[in-house]
Records
---
Amino acid sequence: MLGKCPSHSPCGGGASAIFKFRLKKLNLGQYDGQCVRVVVDNGNVFEGICVYRDKEYCECEYGRKEECLEMEDFIFFPRDIVSVESLEGNSGPYGRFTVPYSDLEMLTVEDGFGYIKEALESEESEHVVRLLNCIDEYLYIRREIPWRSRLPEALKRLLVSNKDPEVQATARKMLERFRRPVGSVRL
């Protein structure tokens, strides 16, 4: 939550001075293994299955003695989290999720083909579908991207390795688009 600095602070409580504060301590452990929506202090919104990591694990793995939530390749420490919301009870057009894809998938796509390939090979089917939807839109908006030519082979491997019907349908649809001549109408 954001607010003005208190009047006793070095800035004198000026209206332009903003600081971050928490009304209560986050109980991150309650979100272990759940589908959640995490909003971080830079405004990014991530939706996905998270894993809780305790202080000891984080100290050993990340050199920080504070708990965190992990979502795929992203780590969220309490001081970076503005809010966490469980999406376990949700049921809508995107299943448990509130949007077709979030910053989790967009940042994976922007990080390049190595991250995309790893995500397609290792993630749960519902994450794979969200990533494919994000890639599809990304390709539609930005036709010239360095890894575009490598995607059909990755989609073919995905069809062999992931038998989820929704993953299969989405991957086949994307492969069909690659078979069309350049400049043909996108359906």
---
Amino acid sequence: MPGFLDYDFLISSLDHYYKFVSGLFMEWINDSEGVSNIIRWARNYYSVFSYFYKMTSEVQTLWTEIRKTAAQSNIFVLDRMKELSLIFETGKYEADLFSNLAGYTKNVKAGHDQFREQLVNSTKQISKLAESQRLYQLIKF
């Protein structure tokens, strides 16, 4: 891929591993709807809430859930990368199409979607609680 890779690794299986893993986690890491971006937004929502609104135990619980989900998603990624590193290290893959690794593609997509949904739901709840407090303040005054 000219213009994309600046260099090759000394071992071709490492080049193949990098190519496969980069594509496998592209949505997760680089997409606007990816888990990494959603985690950043969740942190921003929590920070804004904690600055402008009265902190509640419900928001604290949601923040704990978000942090737990983020940690679980990190472990998920690292586990898949470790499993794949062993496959690529032993050469048990098809270098051209990676077709024997289709199960990993499906597994990572399902994991991404599950973690993303959990993060989005918790973040939406924080947003709803902020809106409730804002409306209460408007009605109160």
---
Amino acid sequence: MLTSVVWACQTPPYYTQHTCIKDECWYNHDTVVFRTPKAERAANHDVVLNLRYTPTYKYKSISVAVKTYDNKKLVRTDTLSYKCFSDNDVAEGKGAYYKEQSAQLPQLQMHKGHIYTMKIYHIMRLDPLNGISNISINIE
């Protein structure tokens, strides 16, 4: 009998980081900032922004703006919308108490030797947003 074993190789993310929102209360002037290490080589990377919220967040969605800087030059601004509750008021996302939503940003073209900064803030009319517990980013 011939048995074959396949090993899955997975490259670790280039950069991953999370920030807790103080008192689970996010003001739109409280910009969350992520700064990458200096890029070792030129490459295109997938970017995922994760948002975690609690049952105290009562709104159907949340919209955020993401400003991306190459060194200190603004290269783009993206807007993401997360659906937090269905039309039947059922919480969306992964998790039991804390719910987490993920959104894909456009691919990031990184240049060797450059540092990238992402500045995230909510663009909701209501301020502050209660129940937002943390924001994380994965660059792969």
---
Amino acid sequence: MLVALAVCCAMIGLAPAASATESAVDKTNVKVHAKLDKNQVKVGEKVKLKGSLEIDAPARSGSDGLELLLVQKLQAGVWVNIADTSCRPNGNYSLNLSFSVSAQLSLRVYYPGTSIYAAASSEVFGLVVL
């Protein structure tokens, strides 16, 4: 009977109500900050990317480990991972990037989130590689 109800709801575009165990958990807001030390480099030249992972609440118990951050470039309308780094909540990160071809790049740093923290991304920033 429940299967038939679920099929009927799916056919008319309605989802069955979530159970108490499936209810959404409030996640802590996160802000990702990122900045390049240069906005133009030569092919093969390193550029330093610095930033921080800002958590809008004190770190929770068991959440003081390193958090993954992904450096992404916009390619054909899709964000593609090009590097990764990590930092602690309310911590700073720094890494060097270099590129092997000339291009005008749109970059961002993306935090995929966890069961505790919401996903977030930095503002988009540009880099010209000559």
